[in-house]
């Protein structure tokens, strides 16, 4: 049985978890266990599989990097003496994206120190079930936070994109007339004529000179209003 306890590795986790309620377990947490010792591997995998919201893939430590590349796990549990990661000590040094959470194990505590920056928890073998569950709790909090932040970023992006598309087209342009700056409504312009680094804006019987090239201005104009009919003119 798991006792009542709350393990927090970062002060901001409570707020993030509150945001993630209803989202954090939409998909199971994918766990990759890469242990060199078959007995340890079976024990850790059985504990992970006992978690209802987790799925486990258990491999020999020699398959650590290839398995991360193939399955993109949420949590990686591996031994500190795994040859591949020991050479790099950083995920990017191995050419793989950092997983949201990692737990590193070892029989000697000295071997764990180098992994402090990339691991959510460090476990000295042999460890008890309660200690392992504490590590899983920390990993779950980190993964829920990562998923919540990704959802929030996607939501902000979906909200901002329509506003950007509405603002990208000009509604007015500023021109000089009689030594004054005058704002001209774009929808009043009948056609435009390129004059090198300038544009002649034609509106009925009047026209104004705009200090802008047609090449630079055209992307800012609504294509539903203006059509390039000649390399020197927009109508």
What attributes characterize this protein structure?
235 residues, alpha/beta, Rossmann fold, OB fold (Dihydrolipoamide Acetyltransferase, E2P), 2 domains, five-stranded antiparallel beta sheet
Helix-strand topology string: HEHEHEHEEHEEEEEHEE
- Overall mean pLDDT stands at 79
| Strand coverage percent | 25-35%
Give the distance, in angstroms, between the N- and C-terminal Cα atoms.
76 Å
- What's the multimeric state? single chain
What does the model show?
By secondary structure, the chain is α/β, with parallel strands linked by helices. The chain is built from six helices and twelve strands. The protein has a five-stranded parallel sheet with strand order 2-1-3-4-5, sandwiched between helices. A five-stranded antiparallel sheet has the order 10-9-8-12-11, with no helix packed on it. The radius of gyration is 30 Å and the shape is rod-shaped.
